[in-house]
Amino acid sequence: MRDWKNNLQKTRYVMDVLLFVIFLLVSAPQATGVPGHEWLSLFFIVPFVIHLLLHWDWIKQSAKRLFSSISLREKFNTVWNYLLYVIMLLATVSGFLVSVALLPSLSITVDIQDFWSKVHHDFSTLIMPMLGVHLALHWHWIINVSKRMFGKGVTS
Amino acid sequence: MKYLKKDWKFRSSILLIVSVLVSALLILLEMTDWAAQINLNGYSHGSDNEGKKDIPSFLMYVLPFVKELVLIGVPMFISLMLIKLLGKKR
Lengths: 156, 90
Known about the structure:
The complex is a heterodimer. By secondary structure, chain A is an all-alpha fold.
């Protein structure tokens, strides 16, 4: 497990676990409080960008692959990833537009619209089942790398 | 973190530019009739103390995470079953 920095799959795994844990914290404003939720959301951008950077090659090829002869599952996975990215952006942007703690603490005032409150609530909730499907699509990878990370005597 | 360091400035810049452009497009949604309708009708998803009076305080911190795990876990389980079923059919 200590060698994770020298292995792309293991680096992705460690960073994805971190991303998932921060996502769970960010998505529970009832537990963290709204100011905690907003500051954590800002911090969440870092592991989210890391996740995208670690899948850079896939992103580069994805649009091209969409129109090539790949399996239906691969096509679905590609479209789903694009959708998840857009919904994640929508939840983040709408979150900034309804900020009551983060932006005011930076002396930035926003005129909060009910529309953005509803968009933020609805699409943030929608991300969770979408993430569930995303995890299911990569389940074999999760299991395989988990075994390599924690399996005794199994080397990378 | 050698995998992250590779061209990270260029790649992060591309991600930032694309994300800002997509976000700018998404902000245009507030000009739609959909947005106008919601702003006209108003929106609220429950007051701060709604339904919380009878709940033990520790549950107020635990339940949001249970809700998340259900909202993520159930669709994940259903998707895994579907993938398995579709895989068997082929």
